[in-house]
Amino acid sequence: MLEKPKKPYVAIIGGSKLTSKLAVLERFLKIADAVLIGGAMAHPFLAAEKKPIGKSLIEKGSEQIAKRLLKAHRNKIVLPIDVIVSKKIAPGVPVRCASFDEIKATEMIGDIGTETMREWGVLIEQAKTIVWNGPVGVTENPSFSHGSLFLARVVATRSKGSAYGLVGGGDTLPVIERSGMGEWIDYVSTGGGAMLEFIALNGKLPGIVPLQVTIKK
User: Exposure of 3 by Cβ count < 10 A (0-12 exposed, 13-18 middle, 19+ buried)?
Assistant: First the structure.
């Protein structure tokens, strides 16, 4: 995954806070061919590109970080092209799929849309290495879980032969379980934070380095 990954290499990263995953995101932008960004992490990037996001949550100070990353890596960063929106993120609320020019000021983004799923599905199906951390929607709510369930199924379908698929993170595991496709993914990591640190530090975790030295000896 880090040293000699097969290409094309697609990384998918979701979740709520850009700052908490900044180091791993920057690492992916160096080693992957495409980095798909979803969930609330995508909001500062969308805002930086002047796309309407309604009253969706956006982490304070994250838009400037997004602008810097877009300037340096726009050819690798893949953002949603449509989204699922509602007036509030709550169970049972009416939802709709919208392009960004259709989002109302009173609406919030809760998931990626159908056109985004189609576009991302094509990229994943072409990949030889796939790494996914973090859901791309508010998966506790069934109305906003379709994008993440779709990713679970397409990553699993591509794994076990055609590509190497790695999925990790505490918030991502329930999605894998709900998809019923976990057995087809090459590796499912239960250590979300450790997985991110492993990627960000290029495998140099305190407990791993001594083992690597011992093996080389």
Answer: exposed
